[in-house]
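$ fold --in a.seq
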Amino acid sequence: MKTIQMTINESLLLQVDEVVKAEKINRSAFIREALEAALQKYKIAQLEKQHREGYARIPQKPEEAEIWLTEQVWDDETW
């Protein structure tokens, strides 16, 4: 692992400290988890963007989805 130094807004640090105390973890662990979650969110956003751009370039044809219509089951009791 690499040690880094960072600047953080004091009110944000107070909020972090509240969470780490409640979760019984240290700041470093909390920040690592937050960064991992942010990176995962970014990755998903990029994949969704690529997906949208792909369908904008090559739209789905109606017949491509029609074959799945009979497979949809909506059980009102489940919802």
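$ fold --in b.seq
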Amino acid sequence: MTLAIIGAGMAGLSCARALKQAGLSVDIFDKGRGPGGRMSTRRVQVEARELRFDHGAQYFTARDERFRAEVARWRDAGRVAPWPAAGAEALVGVPGMNEPVRAMAEGLDVQWATRIERLERRAGEWVLHGAEGAHSGYTHVAIAVPAEQAGPLVAPFSPNFADRAERTTSEPCWTVMACFAQTLPLADTITTGDAVAWAARDGAKPGRSGSESWVLQASPDWTRDHLDLRAEQVAEQLLAVFCAENAVEPARPIYLAAHRWLYAKAQPVAGEPALWDAALGLGLAGDWLLAPRVESAWISGRELADRVIAESS
């Protein structure tokens, strides 16, 4: 049994680690340049110092016993820490939100910057096609990407899986990253705005630089209304709205940028935590099958791995 996993986010890596621990051979492909996905951390140099912005997921919680055990290992290694400003159960990666994903990728065969655009079934094996060429020889394929990307990949082989994916929609999110020379007179987290659904003093998270760095996440409605604007325009406009909503004197940031997440928060279809077709050797995993949370992505990947392992036994 040789397996390919498309997607090296939380779901894909959770699946991959469980499969490898069971002694199975796994190759992983991801279009990103490195670990993170929606748990990404952006690093930039400003005035001879490095700033970090968690511009995707802001924090996570751990309630499932299996996930709690994994998180305990990360905490023991100093790779996650509590963030009381976001709630009693909130946890963040240290020194960036992508640290747990980096930990999960260690020791795995991940081919970064590799976009898989099409699957082919040939002589009982899977062939993965992308701009960089074809990857063949796989008996099983697991797809751990957003539903909107998974649907077209599986449609030629499993109309049922494709339908499940296509009935799932994701809310978009414009995220603005800003750093100021002076401290803003605000709490570390703000969730009361209409246009800005979430704002956090990112530099105050555990293990950060202490800089006055902020992450502003627009509401789905505001994002949809401004979806096609240039990032520079969005950054200026959302920052102005944030200052107005919180009665803060507008300040010129020393760094300002925006990132658009098209698939930020899935609205899941109720059903199984993972989808698996043993006859095809094809599976799907992701938070969109359960709930839009980091923990849900991890559980989904683990559940898919358990089904593959059960077949191989």
